[in-house]
Specification:
The chain has one domain. A 3-stranded antiparallel β-sheet has the order 2-3-4, with no helix packed on it. The chain has a two-stranded antiparallel ribbon with strand order 1-5. It has 225 residues and is mostly helical. It has 7 helices and 5 strands; from the N terminus they run ααβαααβββαβα. Helix 1 packs antiparallel against helix 2 and helix 3 packs across helix 7. The longest helix is centred in the N-terminal third of the chain and has 26 residues. A hairpin with a 5-residue loop joins strand 2 and strand 3. The structure holds iron/sulfur cluster (2 copies).
Length: 225
Amino acid sequence: MDCERDKIVEIFGDSSLGECLGELSGIYSQIESETDDFCRSHNIHCTGGCGTCCEHFVPDITPAEAKLVAAYLLLVKKDIELINRLQQPNGGQCPLYDRDNPFHCQVYPVRPLICRLFGQCASRMKDGTAVFHRCKFDGGRNMPEELVFGPDSGVRTMDEYGIQIHALDSGNSDTTEDLDIAVTKALNEVAMVASYMGILGRPSNDDDDSTPTPTPTPTPTPQAS
Ligand code: SF4
Ligand code: SF4
């Protein structure tokens, strides 16, 4: 497991939010391990420093994924400017992308499913074969152009991971929304639970705990309404 995700899961303990985030984090760990193996086995590498896939793209994410990003922003990142960026039009670019930061993604440990799979995973065709296509932005041609695997190859595909993630929201795949909208909504819920549990604004002896107080200024009004 990623230690920053562990920290969030631990904070929310055995609350229903904590259980949901714990399950999601477990699936992400499994995906990290399996996509690493897949990429290593087939010599798939992104071009160093590339982040083009985030530049003209806002990912669709599930409510559970949005809650994990919201919890990360509120309790780990603690970056009000970044939270406010969710409400600012960004020309169709992910609001959590930072071109000037070498790591680009500002929520990397909790990035949603599609960001984990793009350029790293095969897709299932109607005839059951799994096909991997090179990312069109891979200017360095660091990936094989195409890989095809038979239906019984055991290669995991995007749709299989998607089913696992949607199961956390009762299997309802109609609940995905653009990241900025979904996370803005989730910030309200996560801040409310955290306040109720005494996490936000709680006096602490832990020197490292500079968690913002519950002034949910960091929880802007959902854009969708
Ligand atoms: S969440 Fe991160 S990885 Fe995904 S599109 Fe935004 S910046 Fe890119
Ligand atoms: S998936 Fe493609 S665009 Fe995204 S970082 Fe890798 S090479 Fe770049």
